[in-house]
Amino acid sequence: MDVLNYALTLEYLEAEFYRQGNAAGLLSGKAATYLEQIQKDEEMHVWTITDTIGKLGGDAVPAPEVDFDKSFASADSYLEAAYTFENLGVSAYLGAAPSLFQEKELLSAAASIFGVEARHAAIIGVLQQKAAEGGVYRGAVEKPATKNAVLQAASPFIVAAQTL
């Protein structure tokens, strides 16, 4: 259950980030349309993981209190923070995969979210006009991140959260 609550905490972070960022009205046109859809995807990830935890008889951690500080100072800072969050999510899901290996259904669900997170990161990289290699694409293979590394990267935005 710990790995699901870990994933849920990251999805809460992303969903709230997009809710606040989209509400700030910093983007227009294609960028606004894409990030509105990404917000809906992140909200669905929260729902899916919460539902899965409940079906397994567990208790979902509550959403953390967050502060995105200067992430919404401009359209550029919003997109750069979004790019960072999405790539962090990709690394987090890949890093958690070994702990899910014995649970084929959980591994499949995590892999499906992993794929969506990677697409989100690519879309945002294109919106930012990043270079293909090293920008939109981070190399030929994704790099996993440990739970500690992911939580350390996310910690500046989490004001208070239940311990994972």
Give a brief rundown of this model:
The chain is 65% helix and 3% strand. The protein has a two-stranded antiparallel sheet.
What is the mean pLDDT? 91
Low-confidence region ranges: none
Strand sequence of the main sheet, in spatial order?
1-2
Structural class: mainly alpha
Q: Tell me the number of helical segments per DSSP (H or I, 4 or more residues long).
A: 5
Portion in beta strands: under 5%
- End-to-end Cα distance, whole Å, is 10 Å
Write down the oligomeric state. Answer: single chain
> Which fold name corresponds to the CATH topology?
Ferritin
Overall 3D shape: globular
Q: Which CATH C-level class is it?
A: Mainly Alpha
Number of domains: 1
CATH architecture tag: Up-down Bundle
Report Rg. Answer: 15 Å
What's the count of strands?
A: 2
Characterization of the model:
- This protein has 164 residues and is mainly alpha-helical.
- The protein has one domain (2-59, 68-160): Ferritin, CATH 1.20.1260.
- It contains 5 helices and 2 strands; from the N terminus they run H-H-E-H-H-H-E.
- Strands 1-2 form a two-stranded antiparallel sheet.
- Helix 1 runs antiparallel to helix 3.
- The longest helix has 27 residues, at 29-55.
Comma- or semicolon-separated keywords:
Ferritin, single chain, 65% helix, 164 residues, mainly alpha
Topology diagram in text:
Blueprint: H1 2-23, H2 29-55, E1 65-66, H3 75-100, H4 104-127, H5 147-154, E2 158-160
